[in-house]
Specification:
CorA_TM1_TM2; Beta Polymerase, domain 2; single chain; alpha+beta; 7 strands; transport; 2 domains; CorA_cytoplasmic_dom
Length: 323
């Protein structure tokens, strides 16, 4: 499935026209064409490659999945790879949607590796900024990058909310250790995955702003600088959250360890108290004469010694906050 748009003289003139007419429209220097493909094969890209003179290596990367976010420069065009992301709030799993783009002076060709990439959201951004259409391909590229970076920012904000929930569970009176450990591990794993997507975007946006590439007009540079600022904020936020998740996990282990130490002190204290009557009754259970042997006074003496020593030990342990 393919989608197309034609902008002429800063105005949207046609949509969903026959892709075979792309070269005809590009013959007009006032025209800007957008062409979108979803999950194309090499054969699907062959026709577009001939029309725009795309480099074979770029076409190969556009077909293969799991490319690193990057911006490659070729003689006739630029090749962009990036990822939009979605975060499942219930499972903590990060879902990545890969997109590739061929950027020429008069056309933007987007290649989505899956239908999960919401291209309609990109179109909404283009339609919401009709005053920027006059900047041509730079305008189209801005809308695409702005959407991608916003998904990163939204994911980071959701991560922040999830991690705040973990912080509240740290000092819960009845913590669910296994659930918290699983959640912490899932969030940390997703943050590592997000970092691999967000970090390279600094280089991508910075490369777009290079003047020698002649992609962006000076009038639209502030809009790309705003994207770059969002990329930096998302990157720094991701790094801090990753460190915070690690700190939460380590703090959780420390709290559990301290709690276990308290339990061990309590058990040891009670064991010491219980050892007193065991020792006394064991002594008085000898089959040899002793003071009070065979008399009622022997029973009351052993009982008094047991209760007295147990009480003394209980008081000492309470004073030490072991009980």
């Amino acid at each position: 499935m393919s989608r197309t748009r034609l902008y002429r003289n800063g105005v949207l003139e046609a949509e969903n026209f026959d892709p075979a007419r792309i070269s005809d429209h590009l013959a007009d220097p006032s025209s800007v064409v957008w062409f979108d493909l979803c999950e194309p094969t090499a054969e699907d890209l062959a026709a577009v490659s001939e029309e725009l003179g795309l480099h074979p290596l770029a076409v190969e990367d556009a077909v293969h999945v799991h490319q690193r976010p990057k911006l490659d420069r070729y003689a006739s065009h630029l090749f962009l790879t990036a990822y939009a992301v979605d975060l499942d709030e219930y499972t903590g799993q990060l879902v990545k949607h890969e997109v590739a783009a061929f950027i020429t002076t008069g056309a933007l060709v987007t290649v989505r590796k899956s239908e999960g990439f919401r291209i309609d959201k990109v179109l909404e951004r283009w339609d919401a900024s009709p005053d920027l259409v006059k900047y041509g391909v730079g305008f189209l590229l801005h809308g695409l990058l702005d959407f991608i970076v916003d998904t990163h920012f939204e994911a980071v904000q959701t991560f922040d909310t999830q991690i705040e929930g973990l912080e509240e569970q740290l000092f819960d009176g009845n913590p669910k250790d296994s659930e918290m450990q699983r959640r912490t591990f899932e969030l940390r794993k997703s943050l590592v995955s997000l970092r691999r997507v967000v970090m390279p975007m600094r280089e991508v946006v910075n490369a777009v702003l290079r003047r020698d590439l002649h992609i962006v007009d000076q009038e639209i540079v502030p809009y790309f600088q705003d994207i770059y600022d969002h990329v930096l904020r998302a990157t720094e936020w991701t790094e801090s959250l990753r460190d915070l998740v690690t700190a939460i996990f380590e703090t959780h282990l420390t709290i559990r360890s301290n709690h276990l130490n308290v339990i061990m002190k309590q058990v040891t204290s009670w064991a010491a108290i219980i050892a007193v009557p065991t020792a006394v009754t064991g002594f008085y259970g000898q089959n040899v004469p002793y003071p009070g042997f065979g008399h009622t006074t022997g029973f009351w003496t052993s009982t008094g010694v047991t209760i007295g020593l147990s009480a003394i030990l209980f008081a000492v342990f309470r004073r030490k906050d072991w009980l």
